[in-house]
Each structure stands twice: as structure tokens, then as C-alpha cells.
Design brief:
alpha/beta; Rossmann fold; six-stranded mixed sheet; two-stranded parallel sheet; globular; PRTase_dom; metal-binding; membrane
Length: 162
């Protein structure tokens, strides 16, 4: 179980994905456009849509790698390879977050020539990423907007009453 939680809203995710796109716009092969984007499912799907729009990239592929069950990390299992991307040359490999790097290592083994980008990065996985926006501590669990919903929270003063 994580010792800290960080909630990301839809608006913040959108801003962070656009910031990632700004960093990637001229990082394509030869400074030109990317051949396409490979989204690591499921977390990379929404960032890939935002980044693809900002980079005017129409070719989107996916790779499905099952690594987590809730907050427990397991052995990665590729359930759908990224067939259209070849070895990844000229492609952007995109995920929402790199944590320990387990999923990203598996994806990178399938696409060794791809440029790796994530919106968020933790220290253990950061060396695997070519471009990212925000670093968070290793003991922080990011709560993405697709994993949460708004609900009432009691005022702080009430929690002191016991």
C-alpha cells in the first residue's frame, strides 16, 4: 500500500499532456513528425489521444501489458503486441506513468528503437524514459481521474471531534 496519494484531475491531466506534447513536438525523428504513437494500455490511452491531437498524429497503435492488480505489481504479461510499429523507429511509446519500470521495460523490449514518453515519472523508472513532465516520489500512488469520482468529504474540524 502506498504511503501517499496524489489525485490528478481531468483538467490537470489535460494540462500535463499538453506540456508533454510541447516537449515532443520537435523531438520526432530528424526533428520532424512522429510516424505514430504506441499507447501502453490502459493508462496511456487518454494521454495518447491528447498528445496525438497536439502533434497532429493520426496513427495510433497500442500495446497491452498487464502488470498491476489494484496496487500490487506482478509479472508483466503482453496480451496485445504493437504489430504496426515494427521495432519502434520513429514511433513514440507513451504511458501515463512509469513507476518501477516493469511495464516499460517489457514494452521497450518490443519496441527498442521507440522514443519513450510518460506524463509522470517515479525515480525507479525515470532512467527508462526519454521525455516526461512531472516527477513524483516513489512512495506516492497517483489517483488518475478514471480511477476516482468526486464525493463528499467531511470538514477537517469534524474529524477532530472523533
Amino acid at each position: 500500500m502506498a504511503s501517499r496519494y496524489y489525485t490528478v484531475t481531468w483538467e490537470q491531466l489535460h494540462r500535463d499532456c499538453k506540456a508533454l506534447a510541447w516537449r515532443l513536438v520537435e523531438a520526432g525523428p530528424g526533428g520532424g513528425p512522429w510516424k505514430g504513437i504506441v499507447a501502453i494500455t490502459r493508462g496511456g490511452l487518454i494521454p495518447a489521444a491528447v498528445v496525438a491531437r497536439e502533434l497532429e498524429c493520426r496513427l495510433i497503435e497500442s500495446v497491452s501489458i498487464v502488470t498491476y492488480q489494484d496496487e500490487a505489481i506482478g509479472r508483466p504479461l503482453v496480451t496485445k503486441p504493437p504489430a504496426a510499429a515494427g521495432d519502434g523507429a520513429g514511433w513514440l511509446l507513451l504511458d501515463d506513468l512509469v513507476d518501477t519500470g516493469t511495464t516499460l521495460r517489457e514494452a521497450k523490449s518490443l519496441l527498442p528503437a521507440a522514443h519513450v514518453a510518460t506524463v509522470y515519472a517515479k525515480p525507479a523508472g525515470k532512467p527508462l524514459v526519454d521525455t516526461f513532465v512531472t516527477e513524483v516520489s516513489q512512495d506516492t500512488w497517483i489517483l488518475f481521474p478514471w480511477d476516482t469520482e468526486p464525493q463528499f468529504v467531511a470538514p477537517i474540524a469534524r474529524s477532530r471531534l472523533g
